[in-house]
Amino acid sequence: MSADNSGGDVSVPLRNVLNSIQCIRDRVRDGESNESDGAFNLSNFWDTLNQAVKAVSQEATKLSLAFSKPPLPSQQDGEKLAESVLKSVLTLSTVYYWLPKSQGVSLRRQVRDATVEVLEGVAQLLEVILRSPLQTLTQEQLTSTGGVWSACDCFAQLPRDNKAAVLVVLSAQTGVVKDAIEEIEQALSEAQDPFSDVLDDDQDGDEPRGNQDTYWSEKDRRVIGPCQGLMKASAACLRKLTTAVKANGDVTTPQSLSQLDDLADIAKEISPGVDDLALCLYPPMDYSGVENNVSKLAAVLKKVLDIIRSSHVCGESELTWVQFLDGAVDHNLSLLSGFMCQCVE
Fold first, then answer.
1. Residue-wise pLDDT tens digits, 151-208
2. Are residues 175 and 145 part of one domain?
3. pTM score, whole prediction
4. Which residues contact 136 (CB under 8 A, 6 or more apart)?
5. pLDDT band at 135; cut points 50, 70, 90
6. Is residue 264 part of a domain?
7. InterPro entries given for it (predicted)?
């Protein structure tokens, strides 16, 4: 709010609560949960958390409305508003801390991130109110209020246990890998020159460009083949793992919960490996870079398959595709090694 419309000291309690919420947000982002000594009731946790989120949304709405038009709230009313907002935020953060890591690290991370988003949204709303003029409800204030609502609404879509949380991770990884594979396939199918749509406008006349660094050579295309095979093995691994977790994932024992977290953590390494490999395939192709990224991705896939093999989600039927994909990784590595020898000659 501007200096001319500060309503005496009404801004002071808002600034104080803003500082407090920023501290709470930072503690939630970086802090640890409280470990539960006894039995933890996950269903009760979700009921209480949803009530706390609803309260934050309501208090943010009240705050925004109070500062949407003249006259400004009195200092006393401003203090009451600030206290109510702070109380709702403290309740939300306290309930979040109830969730122990023993319920699953993947679940807790996603609940933590959602909680931080709400706290960040409330802090941004307070910042906007403090620097906005009183005469009108600004678009920025409307947007910030909507941001709090949106962050609160996200809690309805959060996974309710660690198995569901791991499936969220796997789905995100699968989408990234699928996109990378499709981009390479499209570039290969559209033209000899993957940059033709970017550079054609710069050409004078009908003469072809002389810069062969924008073209894939036949040798390049032979190298791309096993790289695509490795990328497709990555996608297949994520799809099969998702199916296995859906069918066999267990959240009733500490060991099973820990294994699910291990699967989620190692799966997160797949998409960066696929992206790095895909990027170095574009011309001019750096063969040493391709070799390096292929080795890294293959090592990640081998590690993923080993962790799957030793986890509770791997039964007899899953072992079949684990062994198949393990062989597919070796096969593509062997093919690439042969092509690389030809490229060096």
1. 999 999 999 999 999 999 999 999 999 999 999 999 888 755 555 555 445 545 444 4
2. no
3. 0.87
4. 69
5. low
6. yes
7. GCIP-like, GCIP-like_N, GCIP_C
Question: Tokens 């597919």 sit at which residue?
Answer: 328
Q: Kindly state whether residues 127 and 229 are assigned to the same domain.
A: no
Claim to verify: residue 103 and residue 17 sit in the same structural domain? yes
**Over 56-95, what HEC string results?**
HHHHHHHHHHHCCCCCCCCHHHHHHHHHHHHHHHHHHHHH
For residues 324 and 25, give the distance between their C-alpha atoms in angstroms, rounded to a whole number: 46
CA distance 256 to 343: 47
Same domain for 231 and 121? no
Residue environment code for 242-256, b if the CB has 16+ CB neighbours within 10 A, otherwise e = bebbeebbbbeeeeb
The one-character DSSP state at 10 is T
Are 309 and 322 spatial neighbours (Cβ–Cβ below 8 Å)? yes
CA-nearest of 104, 121, 87 to 45 is 104
